[in-house]
Amino acid sequence: MLSFAGTETTGAGSTRQLNVTISGINGPGTYNVGQGTSSIVVYVEATLTGGGVTTATWTSTLLAGAGTVTITEISSNRAVGTFQFTLVPSDQGAVGNKSVTSGKFNVAIQSN
Q1: Which 8-state DSSP code applies to residue 50?
Q2: pLDDT tens over the chain, length 112 residues
Q3: Is the pTM of this model over 0.70?
């Protein structure tokens, strides 16, 4: 299993976070996420407003959403690759599908 996350915070009180978990990794290759797989993606936008924090969440799960993660390099201490997804709303704050395109990752692998 490979899991990685990224967070971006803007000066305007907005934060975006992407969490990716891929199951069944057996080396470099392209892995499907979402519908029909046990691999998932969660994308959250949180915005600070005068009344508190509003959030919107999109996901790919076993039943909906789709995409791929392509691992170009993987070793005992690093994974490198690209990703793209179409995620579906999973709460009332999310409207319409969310497309994530041309994503890249280069992450250290930590043992549990």
Answers
A1: T
A2: 999 999 999 877 899 999 999 999 999 999 999 988 999 999 999 998 888 889 999 999 888 899 999 999 999 999 999 999 999 999 989 999 999 999 999 999 987 6
A3: yes
As given in the structure block, the two tokens for residue 14 are: 């907005």
Residue with structure tokens 């998932």?
40
Q: Which residue, among 83, 15, 12, 90, has the nearest Cα to 57 in the 3D structure?
A: 90
Residue owning tokens 């990794």: 25
What is the domain count for the chain? Answer: 1
The pair of three-digit structure tokens given for residue 39, joined into one six-digit string? 């691999």
Q: The domain containing residue 60 runs over which residues? A: 2-108
Question: How far is it, in rounded angstroms, from Cα 108 to Cα 112?
Answer: 13
